[in-house]
Structures are given as structure tokens and as C-alpha cells.
Design the sequence.
């Protein structure tokens, strides 16, 4: 019987994280009574010390901002998926003590879209240019056959997104943030910006829009997501992404598959409703 039964989410700030709710719900559903999942406030400076003290009781870590890149030099191996965007959100500690980094955000995005019937698109728009936007491009590399337009606030960000596109094999075009509403005609729009950033765009949603994937989950719905739904568009939310990427983390850390998607989503919805 393995004694590797500890896991946690690390980041800063971390108090808002829903990860403990989701993972603990999974453990309950899977009957893993001796497993625990906690959250720790850890910044980039404290990360090497924290990781260095992990003992054989640890099975895995979830990583959020600002640690997804900072963790990479501390790992023994990084999967191709994580390497493609230089971002690790999952670390599995193997029986022989190795630390393996992966990125479940990318397959999580694809799974969340597939669940809503979006399997392939011929073009897309991405709002924003941060770490989540590069994960979105990596997901689009697998499901989008045509161009992706990224709406960004600066030429430096535009250059960054075009660079990710070249690296990931995506035809990325860039446009100024002021023109973001022009992207709403695409069959898939992925909003990756912080809370409040897209509120002013809600009035510009066209009639009969395609699919909006808004990666925020609190507050929910965002103004943009509410306007999109009101005009008959399909909306995939941040909780969908959070749950799908967490299911994949649970499967990797516990070795049990499939992860209990429905139980994890219900726990997440309940926790958000109580906030």
C-alpha cells in the first residue's frame, strides 16, 4: 500500500483557490480516505525551499500563478505539452522520487470545449496575451484549422503571441485591444483576461454569436458571458476549465481513472454559490 497520499496547490495569492474543494471531492468519490489536499501560499522565492522539503508522502502538486514557469528548473522531467508553452500546472512525484511536470490546462480546455460540442473550428479569436493565452493557442493548435486573431494591448504582447503561434504551429494574427469586438464574429472566442477587463465589450456581442470560452469563474457569469448567453451563444466557463484540468490532475496523482467529473463539478458549483 503506497503511503504517497499528500497533494496541494501552491501559489500567491492562493486563498481563493477552488482546487482543494475539487480534489477533496474526488478523493471522497474514489474512496481515498487516507488522501489529503491542502493549499499553501508560496511565491517564487519560497518555491525551491518548499519543493526541496517534499518527502515520500507526497504524490503531487498543482501550481497556479506565479509558479507555472518558476517550477520548471526544479523538475526532473517536463512533458512535451508543458514544454510547448513553458508552463507547468501539475507535478507528479513518482515512486522513485522523480518530479515530473505536466500541463493539464491545455487538454482541459479541449475537453471542456468538446463537452459543449465544440470539436473543430476554422478560425478563432483570443482576448489577451498572458500565460493562459499561450495555453489557449496550444489548445487551438489541435482544434482550429485556420487563423487565430489575438487582441492585445501592446506591440510587445503582439510579438509574443506571434512567437507562440510560430512555435505551436498556429497562424496567429494580432490586432489592437480596441478592436476586440471585431473578433466576436469568429466561431470560437477565448477570453483569457483578468476580471472586469472585458466588461465594456458586453454591449458589442452580435446576434447569434458562436462559442465564448471565458476562463474566469469568480465572479460568474462575467458581463460578457451573460450578454453572450442572452444573444443565444454557447458559453464555456472558467469552472468548466478548472474541473476538467483538475480531473486530469487527480488521474495522474492517484493513478485512478476516469476521475469523477460530475462530483467535482458539483462540489465546485456549491462552493462558488456559497461565496
Sequence:
Amino acid at each position: 500500500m503506497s503511503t504517497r497520499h499528500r497533494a496541494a496547490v501552491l501559489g500567491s495569492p492562493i486563498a481563493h483557490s477552488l482546487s482543494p474543494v475539487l480534489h477533496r471531492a474526488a478523493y471522497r468519490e474514489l474512496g481515498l480516505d487516507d488522501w489529503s489536499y491542502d493549499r499553501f501560499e508560496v511565491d517564487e522565492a519560497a518555491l525551491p525551499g518548499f519543493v526541496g522539503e517534499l518527502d515520500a508522502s507526497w504524490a503531487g502538486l498543482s501550481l497556479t500563478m506565479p509558479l507555472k514557469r518558476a517550477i520548471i528548473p526544479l523538475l526532473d522531467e517536463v512533458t512535451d505539452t508543458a514544454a510547448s508553452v513553458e508552463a507547468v500546472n501539475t507535478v507528479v512525484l513518482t515512486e522513485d522520487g522523480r518530479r515530473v511536470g505536466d500541463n493539464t490546462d491545455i487538454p482541459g480546455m479541449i475537453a471542456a470545449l468538446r463537452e459543449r460540442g465544440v470539436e473543430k473550428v476554422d478560425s478563432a479569436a483570443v482576448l489577451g496575451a498572458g500565460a493562459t493565452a499561450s495555453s489557449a493557442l496550444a489548445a487551438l493548435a489541435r482544434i482550429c484549422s485556420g487563423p487565430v486573431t489575438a487582441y492585445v494591448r501592446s506591440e510587445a504582447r503582439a510579438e509574443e503571441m506571434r512567437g507562440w503561434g510560430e512555435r505551436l504551429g498556429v497562424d496567429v494574427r494580432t490586432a489592437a485591444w480596441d478592436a476586440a469586438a471585431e473578433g466576436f464574429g469568429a466561431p470560437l472566442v477565448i477570453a483569457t483576461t483578468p476580471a472586469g477587463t472585458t466588461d465594456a465589450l458586453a454591449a458589442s456581442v452580435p446576434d447569434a454569436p458562436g462559442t465564448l470560452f471565458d476562463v474566469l469563474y469568480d465572479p460568474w457569469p462575467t458581463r460578457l458571458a451573460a450578454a453572450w448567453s442572452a444573444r443565444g451563444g454557447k458559453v464555456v466557463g472558467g469552472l468548466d476549465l478548472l474541473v476538467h484540468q483538475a480531473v486530469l490532475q487527480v488521474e495522474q496523482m492517484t493513478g485512478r481513472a476516469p476521475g469523477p467529473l460530475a462530483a467535482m463539478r458539483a462540489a465546485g458549483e456549491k462552493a462558488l454559490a456559497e461565496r
Summary: The two ends are 38 Å apart (CA to CA). The longest helix spans residues 238-254.
